[in-house]
Amino acid sequence: xxxxxxxxxxxxxxxxxxxxxxxxxxxxxxxxxxxxxxxxxxxxxxxxxxxxxxxxxxxxxxxxxxxxxxxxxxxxxxxxxxxxxxxxxxxxxxxxxxxxxxxxxxxxxxxxxxxxxxxxxxxxxxxxxxxxxxxxxxxxxxxxxxxxxxxxxxxxxxxxxxxxxxxxxxxxxxxxxxxxxxxxxxxxxxxxxxxxxxxxxxxxxxxxxxxxxxxxxxxxxxxxxxxxxxxxxxxxxxxxxxxxxxxxxxxxxxxxxxxxxxxxxxxxxxxxxxxxxxxxxxxxxxxxxxxxxxxxxxxxx
Amino acid sequence: xxxxxxxxxxxxxxxxxxxxxxxxxxxxxxxxxxxxxxxxxxxxxxxxxxxxxxxxxxxxxxxxxxxxxxxxxxxxxxxxxxxxxxxxxxxxxxxxxxxxxxxxxxxxxxxxxxxxxxxxxxxxxxxxxxxxxxxxxxxxxxxxxxxxxxxxxxxxxxxxxxxxxxxxxxxxxxxxxxxxxxxxxxxxxxxxxxxxxxxxxxxxxxxxxxxxxxxxxxxxxxxxxxxxxxxxxxxxxxxxxxxxxxxxxxxxxxxxxxxxxxxxxxxxxxxxxxxxx
Lengths: 301, 277
Prior knowledge:
- The structure holds 2 protein chains of 2 kinds.
- Chain A is an alpha/beta fold.
- Chain A is about 35% helix and about 25% strand.
- Chain A has 11 helices and 13 strands.
- Chain A has helices at about 40-50, 90-105, 110-115, 120-125, 135-145, 165-180, 190-195, 215-220, 230-240, 260-270, 280-290, and strands at about 5-15, 15-25, 30-35, 55-60, 75-80, 150-155, 180-185, 200-205, 205-215, 225, 245, 250-255, 270-275.
- In chain A, the strands form 3 sheets. Chain A has a 6-stranded mixed β-sheet, with helices on both faces. In chain A, strands 11-12-10-13 form a 4-stranded antiparallel β-sheet, with helices on both faces. A 3-stranded antiparallel β-sheet of chain A has the order 2-1-4.
- The two termini of chain A are about 15 Å apart.
- Chain B has helices at about 35-45, 50-70, 80-105, 110-115, 120-155, 170-190, 195-215, 220-225, 230-235, 245-275.
- By secondary structure, chain B is an all-alpha fold.
- Chain B is globular, with a radius of gyration of 24 Å.
- Chains A and B meet through helix 2 of A and helix 1, helix 2 and helix 4 of B.
């Protein structure tokens, strides 16, 4: 049972399919990383979940129902879809006050949330026009937290945050999930989410190309191996019938257990410089292929 | 060890708000229309542009009363004449305020937040209309205030006969006039989603129609019913401001249906469907 359930969601604009039969669920108490290169359909999927974009087909439910039927959605679902979507002539605090007023949460909650995201009272009194992207992200996050929601849906929240800010945000999202909340956050950078996400949904060209728990996805991504003599290694792997998925800087990414790779190298008498589970290198490689416009498909579990 | 595999162990720990993390239906009520109207009224005033537009409207109303007091023959400097004058700039700028109340949400992309908090979009529109009506009524009060001050200054000597003559009809007429202007702005904003387009068309189209009605004889009777400039003028023009005959009320109703009702319905349809980015 998921707090967010997406089933066969598709979106077409004219003849162009932007989101193609996307399905996934986000269970309570977890952080789901929604990964994909820019233009993969992440934002469109998130907007369809929140009823801002009508889907061409398929359904999405949040907290057990259609988002648009939630009586007071701000109290259930915290959204950060576009940090730039704030009136530049309003102060940060005023933007939050408007939302608090609409949701019916007390004013002190505004100051609590501002404090929680690290926007000082002085910064909150300034107009959004003068905010950096990082400050806008913090303001957007404060807005998302305002209604004390059970679900957070965040589109590229790490954009514009400095490394320290990214670290801080990870802690915040981890705490939120550890208290039973559900988080869906998108990113185009694997590194950004792999540290915090329990589950990953990878999307490319509008389709889900991989999904599952982070550990599963990272575990079966093969081995990274390096030898003094790369050609000999390559030949050894080919002889053993192990698929070489890609080459990285001097090394090979192999779709097999490190043990099998080591055995193949030993059988051929090839001396290795490095051999380890590929972990994120495998996903990263898939990611690069996606970004390059390639068509990869890896069935999740 | 028995662990319910469908619930991650962490999920049991949520205690902060004493709420379960299940998918039970929410106990949070829908925001009332009154609350949403308060939000929309606040949006009218809480940006720099909105605030200054309100100030400019009040200043223009005061300014035109001042000009009137300085330039018009003493005998005509009566409350009813000044009141009519005070409303001219207000009637002109209120639609702009109404347009901005809608279109600034599109241009500043705040609409995704607004509709995310209130997914039943027609309720947002209703709240904007209610806020528009209240703002227009406040504008009536502003006009009454500037007129009162103007009349005091102009007729302080007590020499002008009937200086304070006014009627409930004139005030009612003013309220209807300003509310109609405001709602027309909101309706055009809602239909066109663009500030410059809505401002230009809401100003130009009625005038164009009026000119057309003058030029083309066969359109003249239709123009009489549909020229919102003419049908609303009787609401404010002294000496019998707001004192409309049944036929004049009927014409007003028809022209309002066309210039406010039609764009409002078109705008509701368009806004209810449109993808918000």
